Amino acid sequence: xxxxxxxxxxxxxxxxxxxxxxxxxxxxxxxxxxxxxxxxxxxxxxxxxxxxxxxxxxxxxxxxxxxxxxxxxxxxxxxxxxxxxxxxxxxxxxxxxxxxxxxxxxxxxxxxxxxxxxxxxxxxxxxxxxxxxxxxxxxxxxxxxxxxxxxxxxxxx
Length: 157
Known about the structure:
Elements: E1 2-3, E2 16-17, H1 21-33, H2 58-66, H3 76-88, H4 93-99, H5 106-111, H6 117-137
Antiparallel strand pairs: 1-2
């Protein structure tokens, strides 16, 4: 579980974000690699103007160094990709929107105060399985199968 402070969100609300198993495993490995430092992603160089951990611009700078030959994309495109994959997996639109910490619009957003925590827990697990499947297919995967042929969301245990 990742508790994101409200000060770091556009909505100002502090969401509890259920992390998929694979993300937890990656964070545990990063913690080992960081030698149990205060930050899981410490800054490589510490200068007087730098913060002691990876900052918001780090991913964008890193992408600029490795995306040669690829179509233009931004860090925000990762969110679009996640949302698209969640739709392909059959995740209900309101759950997928909540996975991205978007407020529900209209009457739905006014009256439906349920946080869909269990659904938000299962959706990233299914997405993680899809990403692993795509990784196994190699660098140029075939077009994803229609939603009715995709992996199903894990059931409650």
